[in-house]
Amino acid sequence: xxxxxxxxxxxxxxxxxxxxxxxxxxxxxxxxxxxxxxxxxxxxxxxxxxxxxxxxxxxxxxxxxxxxxxxxxxxxxxxxxxxxxxxxxxxxxxxxxxxxxxxxxxxxxxxxxxxxxxxxxxxxxxxxxxxxxxxxxxxxxxxxxxxxxxxxxxxxxxxxxxxxxxxxxxxxxxxxxxxxxxxxxxxxxxxxxxxxxxxxxxxxxxxxxxxxxxxxxxxxxxxxxxxxxxxxxxxxxxxxxxxxxxxxxxxxxxxxxxxxxxxxxxxxxxxxxxxxxxxxxxxxxxxxxxxxxxxxxxxxxxxxxxxxxxxxxxxxxxxxxxxxxxxxxxxxxxxxxxxxxxxxxxxxxxxxxxxxxxxxxxxxxxxxxxxxxxxxxxxxxxxxxxxxxxxxxxxxxxxxxxxx
Length: 404
Hints:
Elements: H1 6-25, H2 30-33, H3 36-47, H4 54-74, H5 76-99, H6 105-154, H7 164-188, H8 190-194, H9 198-235, H10 239-281, H11 284-288, H12 290-300, H13 306-321, H14 327-352, H15 361-375, H16 377-381, H17 383-402
Helix pairs in contact: 3-4, 5-6, 5-9, 6-7, 6-9, 6-13, 9-10, 10-12, 10-14, 10-17, 12-13, 13-14, 15-17
């Protein structure tokens, strides 16, 4: 394998500069010239004669990966059904493999898809819609707690109406009161508003239909796709490195992703059950909002470390704002959240997910905050999977540099 020498590198650089200068001279805008697709094709054309060299091959791989990332970013909404279908196929393929021992694979895929559709519809009708209604009621409850208890407490010292703390809280609660019902009502009325715009409705229905179709196809053809990927990788001079990287990513993510959904579901179920029982004995609002708080706790549990605190806050606020509030009910709520987290951390997660990640807690927290800053709550949820992929790449790169 021949490397590019200095003269060839300079020739490539000069050629790129000449092409760009010529396009500018003929009146093309810089935005059109540096369109990622046009730029990729131009650079690929220049690098193609040197694809067999080490530097040329690496440059082609780098620009191809960058183009794929850019395409996913720009076409995220269009590609989302395909990405969701691919993710579901990846998660449920082990289930199909186990069923394949007893029944034909096609029948196993059909059973898995049927169970998945029934589960999604059941969650939508029996959990999502009631949770939206509870969200509106919870908003009013917290606002009434603020105006009925917090404001009188701040007003005891006299002149508290003009205090900075009172002004800040008033602004926050006013915004909270106005925004959350809008969000909740927009969620509950989403299906009806879709049909006010025929194109939007058709696209949404198409996306809903496409996801199970893509999932079914991916589950049916996943063996062929894996075989194709293996053949493509084996053609590369770095096939061993690529295989090791993909194997590391699969081992890190597969058990984590599949286990995390089950763990979060169990946390949501345990939280809702405990708050419902406490609500039967004490504040009725705990019983009324047990489902919503459980869902919040389950989703928040996907966020490492700080998720447990975020999940407990709504339950504590409901207990404090309930008419039948007593200090021992608050203690029971806090104790139940602690018990759920203790059970999850010491029994449920080790059993379902194992301890294969071995990530430093500080690294996890840094990743969570970076993800939150970049893309908000979704970034917090994607923090650990992203770190797993990056770690696999770093491990593979270090081994390659060491010549292992």
